[in-house]
Amino acid sequence: MNLPESAQSRADLVEHIRSLLDDLDANEADWENSALGDFLEALAAWLTDCGKAAPNGEGAFDPDRPSWQLFASALSAARVYE
After folding, report:
1. How far, in Å, CA of 27 to CA of 52, rounded?
2. CA torsion angle for 74, 76, 78, 82 (degrees, to 10)?
3. Among candidate residues 19, 12, 18, 17, the one with its CA nearest the CA of residue 68
4. Are 51 and 62 in contact (CB under 8 A)?
5. Which 3 state secondary structure label does DSSP give 15?
6. d(CA 29, CA 9)
7. Could you tell me the sign of the dihedral formed by the alpha carbons of 20, 22, 28, 30, in that order?
């Protein structure tokens, strides 16, 4: 599966989304949120929380500076975010 960090353009994001679809087909049991409603709920929750800094200051996104990478990371995180 493509890493979200590689999403630097719209085309990269499309490739990432297709990679997620392939992963869902191959590994649905590994997805905590494989149903659309659960996935969207997790996506909203992750986007709400993504601006909060991790205890070590790493891994936080600036929600006021959206990017292709942020969108790709949100989609990847929604697979398993609770």
Report:
1. 30
2. -110
3. 12
4. yes
5. helix
6. 30
7. negative
Dump pLDDT digits (tens) for 61-77. Answer: 677 788 999 999 999 99
Q: What is the pLDDT of residues 19-28, one digit of tens each?
A: 999 999 999 9
Residue 19 token pair: 């990679």
Q: Are 7 and 72 in contact (CB under 8 A)?
A: yes
- Contact (CB, 8 A) for 43 and 75: yes
Q: What is the pLDDT of residues 14-63, one digit of tens each?
A: 999 999 999 999 999 999 999 999 999 999 999 988 877 555 555 566 77
Q: In angstroms, rounded to a whole number, what is the distance separating the alpha carbons of residues 40 and 25?
A: 18
Tokens of 71: 């969108």
Residue 51 phi/psi, 5-degree rounding, is -85, -5
